[in-house]
TrEMBL record:
Cofactor needs: FAD
Keywords: FAD, Flavoprotein, Oxidoreductase, Signal
Signal sequence residues: 1-18
Signal is among the record's keywords: yes
Protein name per UniProt: FAD dependent oxidoreductase domain-containing protein
GO molecular function, one term: flavin adenine dinucleotide binding
SUPFAM superfamilies xrefs: FAD/NAD(P)-binding domain
Keyword Ubl conjugation among record annotations: no
InterPro entries documented for this protein: FAD-dep_OxRdtase, FAD/NAD-bd_sf, MTOX
Amino acid sequence: MVATVNIVGAGIFGLSLAVELKKNGYNVTVFDKNNYAEDEYRNFEVQAASVDQNKIFRASYGKKLHYQRLAMEARDRWEKLGNGLFVASGMLRVQPTEDLGSLEQETIANMTRDGLREMLFVKGHADDEARAKQQGWFEKILKFSIPGEQQNKEFGAVLDTTAGFTKCSAACYYYYCLAKDLGVQFVFGVDAGNFDSLIKEETENGGSAVVGLRTKNGSEHRADTTVIAAGSFSTQLLPELAYHLESSAGSVARFEIDPQDVFLWDKYSPEKFPVITWKRRARDGAGKDVGSVYVFPRTEEGIVKIGYRGVKYTHFQPAPANSTFSQDNQWSIPASPEIKPPQVALDAIQEFVSIFLPELKDVPFYSTKFCWYTDSLDNEFVVDHVPQYANNSCFVCTGGSGHAAKFLPVLGEHAVDIFVHGENAKTPLRPFWRWRTDVERKNGLEEGPSGPRNLAK
Ligand SMILES: Cc1cc2nc3c(=O)[nH]c(=O)nc-3n(C[C@H](O)[C@H](O)[C@H](O)COP(=O)(O)OP(=O)(O)OC[C@H]3O[C@@H](n4cnc5c(N)ncnc54)[C@H](O)[C@@H]3O)c2cc1C
Ligand SMILES: *[C@@H]1O[C@H](CO)[C@@H](O)[C@H](O)[C@H]1NC(C)=O
Ligand SMILES: *[C@@H]1O[C@H](CO)[C@@H](O)[C@H](O)[C@H]1NC(C)=O
Ligand SMILES: *[C@@H]1O[C@H](CO)[C@@H](O)[C@H](O)[C@H]1NC(C)=O
Ligand SMILES: *[C@@H]1O[C@H](CO)[C@@H](O)[C@H](O)[C@H]1NC(C)=O
Ligand SMILES: *[C@@H]1O[C@H](CO)[C@@H](O)[C@H](O)[C@H]1NC(C)=O
């Protein structure tokens, strides 16, 4: 008999897993409270991290070689798709000062060790600039003056041509169509597709197994395995995840460029303009990133998006009695979409704009919003069977921690290996993505409601 799988969530994780499970012969149904068949992942007000014009693709992962390799595997697949969902625009890492920061130097050393040095171009480095001219990258080694410096000093910068961006919403829609073509079933909508609760049954030895799910309109959907892939909402659906995950918000602002404005349209096009990331200050003593801002080239619709991740805001609320972990009886969950980024975040974005996008300095934002991260306790994803439930009847596929979008084409293959083989999975990601209540809660998850990032304070 064909085993059936219900997946809750049609974002990056749910889609990628659905496609691979179907390819492996499972009978797969995906549920989502949002109707992506109708909006084609283009309603940017929807609260799903995957619904977004663009996300950064990078392969530089510092000492996390497993992600560097996964990123190069994904890059290869994005390129093989050949449909422009990945754009190799390059990414300019602008330094806090005119010199290369120590972290950047280490990144260069490590990428050199992995044979990727040729794909990096250091501003002001004669050999690199000559090579950039030959290869057509020179125009993207942009020069920015350091404000307040007399002798017109410029920020140090490294152009990383392994990097670029993915058209995230378009890629989700592509994978949704692919899944549908393969025969994955989708149930969408605030009633029919909206998860209400798990259906559980007691096993012979007194344990518990998940036998399906109930949706808000009262229907029951039985399955051999139920997968929670609901991004930053996952803890509310499966409180057993509360120890592993915390929702936090990144601040995003958008400008709209008029195609009639030929100068700006051209200047900020992906052909001319790379993704830019800038750390306003070096990492603090604790190695924490204190002020990073990034911008994408304009989209085909003329949207220029800027993100601030200096502070990822938490939103602590009373935790329900069924949550398996809380801090001062609270947990951080997404705030309603009406809650917008605070002025300090917008000020940081404005400061960035005045240096890096000077023509837009006095232009009002087209829109601002929070985008909710699903932070795990160590920045690794959480992809495993939930040990509390018998018969491998409950599986989780989440914990994107702000960096999973780039992996859409390959995430599912590794997740299915874990789904099918559990402890015996061959993927090198298995030890990193396992259910891990034995691991200490770090990555900011130790802060709790009294921490400095809590919006609800
Ligand atoms: C500000 C920000 C910037 C980021 N930048 C990058 C980047 O540059 N590069 C990169 O690679 N990654 C980036 N990421 C990370 C990436 O976007 C996420 O890791 C990824 O999109 C998470 O996908 P997901 O499927 O877990 O969650 P989501 O995309 O949130 O999808 C979860 C789905 O579950 C559904 N759902 C929720 N509750 C229910 C329910 N009760 N019933 C039914 N359905 C439900 C939701 O509607 C949603 O469609 C960023 C994330 C954020 C927030
Ligand atoms: C797949 O599951 C659906 C819903 O549970 C069911 O209606 C359908 O008959 C199943 N198909 C197969 C081939 O088992
Ligand atoms: C470079 O690699 C070394 C050894 O693997 C590691 O300890 C170090 O943290 C890496 N540097 C960066 C910037 O990640
Ligand atoms: C819930 O919605 C689905 C899809 O529209 C429908 O098939 C089902 O009958 C509904 N269930 C109830 C109990 O109304
Ligand atoms: C769990 O699996 C066992 C062995 O396959 C089976 O006998 C039992 O009925 C299953 N329990 C549930 C609740 O599905
Ligand atoms: C947990 O408890 C809350 C509040 O009592 C309830 O609304 C929710 O459905 C419960 N969640 C689960 C997954 O049991």
